[in-house]
Amino acid sequence: MNDPGVYGANGHRYPGRLFIVEGIDGSGKSTQLTLLAQWLRSEGYPVVFSEWNSSSIVKATTSRGKRRKILTPLTFSLIHATDFSDRVEREIVPSLKAGAVVLADRYVYTAFARDVVRGVDPAWVRSLYRFAAIPTRAFYFRVPLETALKRILSGRPKLKWYEAGMDLGLSADLQESYRQFQSRLLIEYETLVQEYGLLVMDATRPVEAQQRLLREAIRPHLEGVRERSTLEPV
Amino acid sequence: MSLSDPHGIRIPGVDPAELNGWLIVIEGTDGVGRTTHVNLLRTHLERQGYAVAETGLSRSDLASGGIRRAKQGNTLGSNAYNLFYATDFADRLERQILPALRSGFVMLTDRYIYSLIARAIVRGADPDWIKKVYSFSLKPDAVFYLRIEVPQLVPRVLSNGGFDYWESGMDLPMGEDLYESFIHYQRRVIEELDALARENRFETIDAGLPVDRIAAFLAERVTQVLDARRAPLDEAAPRS
User: Fold this and answer.
1) Is the confidence metric ipTM above 0.95 for this complex?
2) By the CB < 8 Å criterion, does A55 face chain B?
3) Do B62 and A120 make contact, defined as CB atoms within 8 angstroms?
4) Is residue A190 domain-resident?
5) pLDDT digits (tens, 9 = 90+) for A160-216
6) What is the pTM of this model?
7) Contacts of A156 (CB under 8 A, 6+ apart)
8) Are strands B22-27 and B106-110 parallel, antiparallel or unpaired?
9) For residues A175 and A172, what is the distance between their CA atoms, to the nearest angstrom?
10) What architecture is the B3-7+15-231 domain classified under in CATH?
């Protein structure tokens, strides 16, 4: 973490706060983040939401690559970093400078987990995301594979090719591939919990119990946020 | 052929040992005559019996359309552009350059990672970071750098349709108008290319020389590079 050449070397010094959630599909992280956003807004905090893979300009290219199945581990990694970089520059950092509470559904750790499972060099991908602002707090929603699979697969969804990790050639069956891909991601996430000190949430607990813990965990970091975000001449 | 040193990383699924073609790069700033020389060199090599393929910046199947759309609106973050170009490069590396090298082609590349690195640095990227980003690239068999001074560049650009917004660095605070900005931006790009040329031992060619002299030099030097690593005839002959 002390290497200036990789992500995580320097915390951000902006007046805002950045909270991010991580976890595999079906961990319930998005539900928790949505509830958190509602609560923060009702408390009067200026909240900005940023989602993984959502830069309007880059997304068209990502979708094209996925639809035509031409993304390799390397280009999959780079196009997601491009998307993320655009959001950092045009969404996350300006909002933090303006003193907002920024909530991100998935962050660099998603790339670290997915890209490394796809065979990309771990040190290289950590260097790639060096420009990312460091979160005030990062939460990892830990869930057993079977629980997450039950939540995702019970709706009989149409799993997408890359979502199921079909490009890894783990299995010709979409659901089986998805299962194996997710189980590898879980292993990678545990490494990241250690490496970056992600705060682990027990995602098997009732939704409202998790939400209570989440609010308690971020409350101490909200001190002074509203004052700073009131409009003042620069 | 080797993965670029010293920080080279392996590309998933690529075995450097199976690459038996040649990667020849023509570098240089905008309007210096690269395209002319790539075309002349191609003709020359094909006449000698080599199979030749070509690529150049933002010609990828994956990202060229996206980059074009982003530039039209000028609405992408500056660092995101750097990474969009890296995506474009990676797609071309994996889907144009590597297949050509596996098939024993001479891959002529109209600009490589060096122009991309130079432009990113001029736009504020950390030099160590952007070089690390491109550490998955292949080390070329030869890089020929068509070098020019800005005052010589201006008349060429004027006779080729005038100053381009991006080639003048108008997205940067570099000057009041296209001309001023062009001068400052190109000077900085050339400085960075010069530094990369020293670091990576490019063969530098004075782009102010007559076209036929440069073409003759390139033809001779590329032939030497190909000869240095051509399969011996007895090995290449069909076996009974």
Assistant:
1) no
2) yes
3) no
4) yes
5) 999 999 999 999 999 999 999 999 999 999 999 999 999 999 999 999 999 999 999
6) 0.91
7) none
8) parallel
9) 9
10) 3-Layer(aba) Sandwich (3.40)
